[in-house]
What we know:
Chain A is an alpha/beta fold. Chain A has 14 helices and twelve strands. Chain A has a ten-stranded mixed beta sheet with strand order 3-2-4-7-1-8-12-11-9-10, sandwiched between helices. A two-stranded antiparallel ribbon of chain A has the order 5-6. Chain B folds into two domains: 53 residues, no CATH class; 75 residues, CATH 2.40.50. Helix content of chain B is 6%, strand content 35%. Chain B has one helix and eight strands; from the N terminus they run αββββββββ. The longest helix of chain B is centred in the first third of the chain and has 8 residues.
Amino acid sequence: MPRRVALIAGGTTHKWGVYPGTLRDIVSEAAKACFDSNPRVNSRDIQGFIFCSVFPERSAYQSHTAPWAAESAGVAPDRIFCRVENMCGSGTVGIRTAYTAIAAGLADLVMVLGAEKMFIPNRQEIVLNMLTGVDREWEGSTGLTAPVQFALAAQAHMNKYGTTEEHLAMVSSKNHRNASRNPYAQFPKPCTVEEVLASKPVATPFKIFDCSSITDGGAAVILATEELAKDLTDNPVYILGTCQAASGFNHANIPDDWADWVILSQAAQTAYNMAGIKPQDVDVAEVHDCFSASEIIEYEALGFCPQGEGGNFVATGGSDYGGQVVVNPRGGLIGCGHPLGATGVAQAIEIFRQLRNEAGERQVANAKIGLNHNLSGIAEHHVVIYGRQEVL
Amino acid sequence: MINEFNLDYIYIMDYIPQQSPEHNKLHTFFENLRAGRLTTTRCPSCQRDFWPPRTVCPLCHSNTLEWVDLPSTGTVRGFSIQTSGAAPGLTLPMVFARVQLTDQVGFVARVIRVDPAEMEVGMTVEPVVVSAPRDRVMWAFRPKI
Ligand SMILES: [Zn+2]
């Protein structure tokens, strides 16, 4: 029987955007924010350390990064340590790695730290770095990057279900509004649907406000066994269920219909079954809005609304405060920026804060169950479902 | 900058595939492409064509695959016009499309020599060979003439 695992601490670097420091500085400050969030945790008691970062070899000229980052974080893991790299989903994969170790009994107290330094002195290299995240020889070599991949999915959804550019803009406007209440967000300024539609075109149908931005940022959480969690905090947030699924890598080989993300549906269903809940039980969700259309397709695949009705779901307020499930209360990737390896960890921190009633202006009333979805591609998804003590 | 380190070539900044027999077992793809043929690998025992080309069949793990020519035209299933954020060496706007070539082979590729306003789902495109730095070649598509 696997052991129950809980989140007991979490913190992000103060302000995402262009960070005036090194990746090492980001790691140190993320660890500090995490330890500061729970003074009952002694950093010397940390037994495991999972570092989530996508291209430190390129952006910081540093490999061998798990012990390197552990040193900067001020921890000396004596049970498990590794670096996790799963492109944009690295943070959540790191949390799943820590969960696995704790559930299996390999460690009792593990830190997961995500950090990415994306802004580098030569801006042209930023695009080259992003090309490493697709099939570089057969796709990246043609110049294909993320905006176009997700634009093709958006177009498929629009053609199949009648989703409009206004629907996409509503996602962006909602997430920017939420980000305005989030101190670390890269883009804390609200914007209207009209402003999104009028913003600079990037890759049809996306305008710049439909897209998450590259950014520098860090985030860290601490996971513990149920027993230790009860000692170290009054409000543990438990992992109720989790799953991960992928099918294909090169876009030639992923499931054919890009309007319906069946791999996400599969992963979500397994996670719901493990948690013993239904999509309608989720009060708050952090989902991967790398682009506005992604969030619409995810509403459907996560079961928040029927297939094809994601546009209508956002238009009728289903994903906003007062709706069926509040989606991306921290502002999402669109509002916060997307520091690859840190994103999934920061999403988990928002769920942690929401379920502990510590989200301030962003608080979702009486949130008991939270879902975190993080992706690394149209057909590569990572899901974790969290709950308060009372839902166990 | 490169000269400051006495280097004339930095491999990790080169996003174009290596194409010579010393560096790539799939060099035949590029030799065929240079001759104007867009090809891929077929596993004769599975009767399956794969994209991208393979050294080993992912279904039966045979390593005796054969090169086959892909059709001279493909159909656009979806497209996007990119106007921001090109990799060094590429100029905007760029058009990318999902191009379906056979029942088994379809992939995302660049469409060149096209007015972006003329792109539409269902249009027919044909492969075109483009030159790449360091005497290499790459594939793209253009509207069928
Ligand atoms: Zn075979």
